[in-house]
Amino acid sequence: MREEFFDARDAVQVKYEMLRRVRAEGRAIARAAADFGFSRPSFYKAQADFRRAGVPGLLPAKKGPRRAHKLAGPVMELIEQELATDPSLGSRELARRVRARFDVRVHARSIERALARRQKKRP
Questions:
Q1: Which residues contact residue 101 at a Cβ distance below 8 angstroms, ignoring those fewer than 6 apart?
Q2: Looking at the whole model, is its pTM more than 0.70?
Q3: How distant is the alpha carbon of residue 50 from its chain centre?
Q4: What end-to-end distance do the CA atoms of the chain give, in Å?
Q5: CA dist., res. 97 & res. 120, Å (int)
Q6: Which of 2, 12, 22, 113 lies 20 to 30 Å (CA to CA) from residue 38?
């Protein structure tokens, strides 16, 4: 008796097997997607990701923003101006001032990380 290796909790394996069944066994896309708990658009996305990058393309992509987009240009300029005027200001107070000036909510920890990155860049 041949035992198959398949872990239904492994999203990459599930997507690969769904794609394989369509390609190798000729299963209908809608049926294969439904069998594996995916929608047709999800099947097509997995297929495109697999064609583009192979199995690594089936790995889940990192979610969320790729950079500190709220702390761009004018916001960081304000933070640095405020700190130049009063170096004792904390990140919570800076976040409050950013919100008052730009109507943008920024977490205090995000400000701390942005300031740390700026310090690293300076020689």
A1: 78
A2: no
A3: 19
A4: 66
A5: 24
A6: 2
User: How far is it, in rounded angstroms, from Cα 75 to Cα 97?
Assistant: 10
Nearest to 75 by CA among 46, 118, 54, 106: 106
At 1, the pLDDT band (50, 70, 90 cuts) reads very low
Strands (DSSP E) found in 9-51: none
Q: Could you tell me which of 16, 40, 18 has the C-alpha nearest to residue 30?
A: 40
Mean per-residue pLDDT for 43-48?
96
Q: Name every residue whose Cβ is closer than 8 Å to that of residue 110 and which is 6 or more positions away in sequence.
A: 68, 70, 71
Which of these, 2, 45, 53, 1, lies nearest to 18 by C-alpha position?
A: 45
Alpha-carbon distance 78 to 75, whole Å?
5
Per DSSP, the three-state class of 16 is helix
Measured in residues, the chain has a length of: 123
Model pLDDT for residues 51-73, shown as the tens digit of each residue: 999 999 999 887 777 777 888 89
CA distances from 59 to 6, 22, 56, 63, 74 (A): 16, 19, 5, 12, 36
